Amino acid sequence: MLVERTRETGDAICGGFLSWRTLESLARLGVAPDALGPARVTTVRVLSGSRVVETRLPRPAHGVSRHLLDTVMLKRAIDAGSAVERGVTVRGVDGLTARLDDGADLAADTLFLASGKHDVRGAARPAAARGSDPVLGLRVRIPAAPGLDALIGESIELHLFDRGYVGIVRQEDGSANCCLAVHRSALIEAGSPAALLDQLGRDHPRLGERFAYRSGSEAIDAIANVPYGWRALHGAQGLFRLGDQAGVIPSLAGEGMGIAIASGIRAGHAYLGGGAAAAPGFQQGFARATARPIRLAGLVRDAAERPALTGFALPLLRQVPGLIEIIASLTRIGHSRLDRTPS
Predict the structure, then answer these.
(1) Could you give the percent of the chain with pLDDT greater than 70?
(2) Which ranges form a coiled coil (predicted)?
(3) CATH for the 135-226 domain, from 3.40.50.2300, 3.30.9.100, 3.50.4.10, 3.40.50.970
């Protein structure tokens, strides 16, 4: 049974980037790239001040809204026989019992916890993972426009600034999905999310060119205290943590959805092979699989948020052909035999 708190499929705060490896995993589940719209991504562009570095991705990727991706995935689950309860919120977890907002309890031998960056009472991640100056996630969608198409094209862009960065990618309707990861101190200094966007547009002309297509009335979505770098190192019998509940990779790597989908596939196979008792082994194995990409993405993020380091790093990226491609490959979760596309 799948318990989903919304009655209608929304559009979660997400970078909306599917890597080539994630597309392979989705194909194994019966989801072809054509089902996810036309927003192909072939290059990565890194911008900091007046510096711009661009290179091709190892293989084509995809930009997609969570509304479309979640709609397609939910249909696949229903077609495969899943029972779905919509408009039901899990208020807390007691062992393997989910307590619902209507007062009912759902008890089972196994719980797959896929609540994303939101913690569930009774199964929350440790507060220490958030640090003293926690990271906040912001998202604004800029409507489609020919000029915006010309600026972004088939690229995923990474705009770097002090204590944060903005990722921009076009999605299936031509709009630009702009996701920010910013430390709370920078947001406090700006005064508000809208003021922060205005300030960034003034201070970074190339980013300002993209933000110029905002009408000013777009909603700015936010999520607080994102615990980048956290991994679930151990598990409990019957509890499978998936996606951000298993490991939180810095969003600039573009591998959050890749980790979510790979964790679901591997947890499903672990359960089919060993039942509820397979959960601890799955969690430890998945923590090992995500160790390198999460740690490397963390190092890249630390450098990206410091102007002094980006001033050194960007010329290096330009002088060493293929370095961005190597980093992109090393921050993907490695394929196991379970999430490869069958030959």
Answers:
(1) 93
(2) none
(3) 3.30.9.100
